[in-house]
Design brief:
6-stranded antiparallel β-sheet; 24 strands; Cathepsin D, subunit A, domain 1; disordered C terminus; 2 domains; 6-stranded mixed β-barrel
Length: 308
């Protein structure tokens, strides 16, 4: 997970797309959570762990494994399983792996979640209420709508969200628990990229092979904070980045000096670049900035908020 870096890396992108605030209010799904948006990037929600809590967890699509702070592991008396290797931009470390019997978001439960135990001091410097990071081993069990405008996450019961929205679908390449999507970047060169869809990243990150293929020059330096420490990065700007039908111009990118130890594509794509996104794990696609279906607006529930 990549948390809040030096302010020079912060992204402020204004996008002019329809939002789904009204649609979200009228879909009668059971599990809607409001989230806190910390430092414009981190999605923080209350989750129940082993029927206790709620505890504040970061929802991180870029993390394949759930992480809990040492203090929470002690509070929950989590059973220890073994030690495993854990990789971030700061490097590779060995962490104890424990198990959470049940992790819950409203009605939505996942049982027997493996959880790394780590001192999340660097993350807690950003927000001292954060006690864990819910990764893809939890999120991949659901279809959900992540709406930055209304600051809500809605977990789909059946197909009620999918039936209410439309837009371009982008296939998800599943590598382990990680969601990788195709994109095209243009700089001095033009390159097709495979980017990890990451709700924990606050800027686009390009690994060395990708930035070299694009001949992307570094234009400054920044500091990235991860769950296990700080790492210095160079930064550059991508003239054009296209993801599905969405196009971004002159977008800031962090440029780490080394390739990650694990194969996670060519870089990271922050979900915060989009006002709304729908992730369908059952069928393996994501819909970026979807819009309400016209026929649903005509024949659906009568009380619908204003589309913007």
């Amino acid at each position: 997970m990549e948390c809040k870096p030096h302010p020079g890396l912060a992204i402020r992108v204004a996008l002019f797309y329809f939002t789904l605030a009204g649609v979200c209010q009228s879909i009668q799904a059971q599990s809607q959570m409001r989230f806190r948006l910390v430092h414009d990037t981190l999605v923080v929600v209350p989750l129940m762990a082993d029927r206790q809590g709620p505890f504040d967890f970061v929802l991180d699509t870029g993390a394949d494994t759930t992480i809990v702070d040492q203090s929470l592991a002690i509070k929950l008396s989590l059973p220890s399983l073994r030690r495993v290797q854990h990789t971030t931009l700061a490097g590779v470390g060995s962490l104890p792996l424990n198990s959470i019997a049940t992790l819950s978001a409203g009605w939505a439960d996942v049982n027997d979640i493996p959880a790394l135990v780590e001192d999340l001091a660097e993350v807690r410097k950003i927000d001292d209420r954060i006690e864990g990071i819910a990764g893809q081993d939890f999120l991949s069990h659901f279809n959900y709508l992540l709406d930055y405008r209304s600051r809500s996450v809605r977990i789909e019961i059946d197909n009620e969200i999918r039936d209410a929205i439309e837009g371009d679908t982008l296939p998800i390449e599943m590598t382990g628990n990680r969601m990788i999507v195709a994109s095209v970047a243009q700089s001095q060169g033009r390159e097709r990229l495979r980017l990890l869809l990451d709700s924990g990243a606050n800027s686009v990150v390009l690994f060395p092979r990708a930035s070299q293929a694009l001949d992307l020059p570094a234009q400054g330096h920044g500091l990235e904070v991860t769950s296990s420490g700080q790492v210095g990065l160079q930064v550059g700007r991508i003239p054009v980045l296209t993801v599905g039908s969405q196009q971004f111009r002159e977008i800031t990118a962090a440029l780490p000096a080394a390739e990650p130890a694990e194969g996670i594509g060519d870089g990271l794509l922050p979900t915060a670049l989009f006002q709304t996104l729908y992730v369908n794990n059952r069928e393996g696609f994501v819909m970026l900035n979807p819009r309400a279906k016209k026929n649903w607006l005509s024949h659906g529930p009568a009380v619908i908020g204003q589309m913007r």
